Amino acid sequence: MPNARTKLFGVIGDPVGHSLSPVLHNYFLKKYKLNAFYFAFRVVPANLGACVQGAWAMGLAGLNVTLPHKEKVVELVKFRSPEVNLLGVANTLSMREEGVAAFVTDPAGFIASVQPMQPLFRESRVVLFGAGGSARSVAYALSKMGSRELTIVNRTYDRALHLSRFCTERLGFRKVSILGMRDPALNDHILGAQALVNATSIGMAPYVDYSPLPDFSAVSQNHFVYDLVYNPVWTVFLREAKKKGAKVQNGLDMLIYQGLESLQIWMNETYSIARNELNALRIHLSTELQS
Q1: Contact 124/274 with Cβ under 8 angstroms?
Q2: Top-tier CATH class for 108-250
Q3: What secondary structure letter does DSSP report for 282?
């Protein structure tokens, strides 16, 4: 039962009704026997500043931040981790006595989620769909794993150019190319890549009939295809890539590991999850998506 010492956590976004974060974090809170609860809060962009200040004033313990607030929230906090300063995005807020501190756990979550495949990324070429905050976090994670060439595929050139310059000037990529989603050169870039990563929201429920890649003819068994989207579990992007023989993975494990990283920041403790528990949690979250 809640009492005066119960900690309150949550996720803020707009929309936020699709989020699995409450299910995930309440699982963690129960597993680690923490006196706390986690909720989802829809916060429209105009109210973001009031939300952050109000959460700190009321003594909430911490918040996760999802679309569309990951960039804007950086301007509203007192303290920023080195990765937040580098990437300009945050997905975790810790409410401290002296003010709000911002962190980004997406890169660590991505790296942990692909742990069995990490050797693939050394000196690799990757096709990255998207140029927003999530794409920036993935690009950073790819650089830490040793990827050296990147093709950014995005609908708007200016945003892709900004990410491209960041990748070459700050992350150490040897070569970065920019293409549109229907660029005829895209297939050639896919043929020369080892991995494809979707860091857009294309294909996320309720828009489940869409894919960031319109033509899968260049995808083969030589590719690893990763979709940050986890709702639905099987996006068009992953289904079509699997038909071509590619190894595929959705964003569920990234969600789990970035969430665990957030909890460690909030509680200043180290937590881990065993492989058998990870499998059970995947099933639990997948079942929740289908309910």
Answers
A1: no
A2: alpha beta
A3: H
C-alpha–C-alpha distance, residues 192 and 33, integer Å: 48
Distance between CA atoms of residues 45 and 48, nearest Å: 5
Residues in the chain, overall count:
291
To the nearest whole number, what is the mean pLDDT of the chain?
96
Q: Mark 205-225 as b/e (b = at least 16 C-beta within 10 Å).
A: eeeeeebbbeebebbeeebbb
291 pLDDT more than 80: no
Which of 87, 76, 91 is closest to 13 using CA atoms?
91
Model pLDDT for residues 122-131, shown as the tens digit of each residue = 999 999 999 9
Domain definitions of the chain by residue range: 7-104+253-290, 108-250
- The superfamily CATH assigns to domain 7-104+253-290 is Leucine Dehydrogenase, chain A, domain 1 (3.40.50.10860)
* Residues catalogued as catalytic: 70
Judge contact between 236 and 88, C-beta under 8 A: no
Q: Do 7-104+253-290 and 108-250 share a fold? A: yes
Using CA atoms of 116, 120, 121, 124 in order, give the dihedral in degrees to the nearest 10.
-170
Q: What are phi and psi of 77, to 5 degrees?
A: -115, 165
Minimal CA–CA distance to 129: which of 120, 141, 138, 119?
A: 138
Place of tokens 């936020």: 16
- The pLDDT tens digits of the residues spanning 93-113 come to 999 999 999 999 999 999 999
Stated as kind and residue range, the H or E segment containing 10 is: strand 7-13
Rounded CA-CA distance 77/95 in Å is 10
Amino acid sitting at position 208: V
